[in-house]
Amino acid sequence: MAEDDSQSQELATVRELCANGVCMRTTDVEAKLDEGNIQEAESSLREGLSLNFEEARALLGRLEYQRGNVEGALRVFDGIDLQAAIQRLQPSVNENSNSSSFSSYSTSISSHKKGRANRDSQPAVSQHAASLVLEGVYLKAKSLQKLGRFTEAAQDCTNVLDAVGRIFPQGIPGVQVENRLQETVSQAVELLPELWKQAGNFQEAMSAYRRGLLHLWNLDNDCCARIQKAFAVFLLYSGLEAGPPSLGAQVDGAYVPKNNLEEAILLLMVLMQKIHQGIIQWDPSVMDHLTYALSLCSQTPVLSKQLEELKPGVLHRIDRWNTLALCCSGAGQNKYALNLLRKSLHKHERPNDLTALLLAAKICSEDSHLAAEGVGYAQRAINNAQGVDGHLKGVGFRMLGLCLRQLAKIALKDSERFHLQSEALIFLNAAISLEPDNADIIFELGVQYAEQRNLNAALHYAKKYIDVTGGSVLKGWRLLALVLSAQHRFSEAAVVTDAALDETAKWEQGPLLRLKAKLEISQSRPMDAIETYRYLLALVQAQRKSFGPMRIDSQVGDDKVNEFEVWHGLANLYSSLSHWKDVEICLKKAREMKPYSAKLLLTEGIMCQERGEIQEAMSAYINAILLEPSYAPCKVLISAMLSKMGSNSLPVARTLLSDALRIEPTNHKAWYYLGMIQKDDGRLTEATDSLRAAYILEESDPVESFRSLL
């Protein structure tokens, strides 16, 4: 510890020992110590400086400790009876505490200075004696620490703080305690949790940290900040979950953290507040730990607020932009994040910052309209991933592959789409060659192959993903089940789904249960599917009781049990059974969750069409497209209806089908209706190709779109 080392260096240069207003040279005392005559050295100090036994031992031990004779110092310190010393010291110090009235601590500093001038010498002598004895016990703890006897050292350090608590039962009055006594107390408070950690007793270390921060030790700002930071680091990385602190009535009504993470965040936020107020110096590691802690609980907006409150010059503007971009991206504010990264990557700033390039490419890879820009960022990242950053080249290849996949979705020509999809696969395979166990790349390759209907390759990567993740990630099981369903291996897909349900927490079973219901429908077991949906609805009700109604809709991504999807799936099931009354009830329930939905309008349109209500069906499909212009299923059904209305409607139907295939190239119904229109036009070769594509895609169509995995 810095203060302790500086104190030792300072004391080591002193060649005199002083106490009670008297000084004596250390030469004679050191000579007797060198001869092993501890008793004579002690007697010399007691007579020369008017000290009692404990005070002389403490001073003598300090001298040995300063000379580097740790074992000799320990032999001297062992003779100190701390309890007896406290009993002698406590009355006089308490008298001083009572006479000065701790309640007057809130008065001006000048009044304390004036009061100090009027005190008699007895309190000062008592504090000096307390300082000598307590410092002796503290140095004994330091000696034991250097000898590796950590538990004994922690016990002695605890004795120091217990003694201070008995001497000053109302806490230490800062302006009335001499500097050396305050230094000893501060150092002991800081040392104690470190000793317990070195002893392997993490529960005691936790208690020592809380004791140090909750009691009135009169710690200076820097010392308190060091303890708060060390405690926060311990809470974050120790792996010990000790539960919330027991603060008692003294902070009644105050916020009490519920777990280690909340307590660590609270401590780090307090430190950041001190930095903002100029109470302590800027410490970048505090921001690093806070970034990690807030990322764990998805509270990056809180982190961005802390960054914005930093004074200019504390953090370089580019570092601030990049970290803010990361926070915004974590909060789903990709547009704002990308704008910050564009500033950071400007040619006059840091155009080759690898981390910023990769983050920008990642953001662009999630939006097909930004994918072309993302390709540029990814290529620059690959070019700059050299030397010590060479391990990030695989990340660059992955981002490039994802951006190319997004570009393929908006390609206008089939040839261009095929070329981009092939390029995406090339770069994803390049990424997996550099990072063969990267679960994210394995999953993305599996989905990419599945979308291109290379089901054997997709099955390989689905199984590999489950192996790499140990089956702990839900989407891996879903991918495997969907690939098996696309191969018409429904019974195996059902077994996989059941196995996944056994490994999945109750609130995360929603997607798996919906998938199970669809597999049961594919196996011509509609009544079993209805029972599965009923179980899902019961799960929704249980979830509502546990978390409240708002949690169902606002945090669907967390709970995975989406009531809207349940009612919509049940409506589709009843529609396939022509139970129209039940369909209407389910649609009504779903609209309570989401009033405007293209999915619901599609189901409503199918119901109307099956009942012969053609105009109502057409209106529902058109409204769905107006609500969601890129919703391909409605465009396909409108085209099917138009193709039956005569030759004048065929051009419109053909245009809608072409647009639907641009959005969903694997929509087998779109290929089928396009083939029928081409047949009516007399273009038999094109019709044959379209109908063949429709047949192949229908034979490899999963029970749920592979895109639902992304």
Automatic annotation (TrEMBL):
What keyword terms does UniProt attach to this protein? TPR repeat
Under Gene3D superfamilies, the record lists: Tetratricopeptide repeat domain (1.25.40.10)
Give yes or no: UniProt keyword GTP-binding: no
Q: Region Disordered: start and end of each range?
A: 93-122
UniProt lists compositionally biased (Low complexity) regions at 93-110
Return the Pfam families for the record. TPR_16
Q: Where are the TPR repeats?
A: 598-631
Name of the protein in its database record: Protein NPG1 isoform X1
Taxonomic source organism: Herrania umbratica
Its gene is: LOC110409286
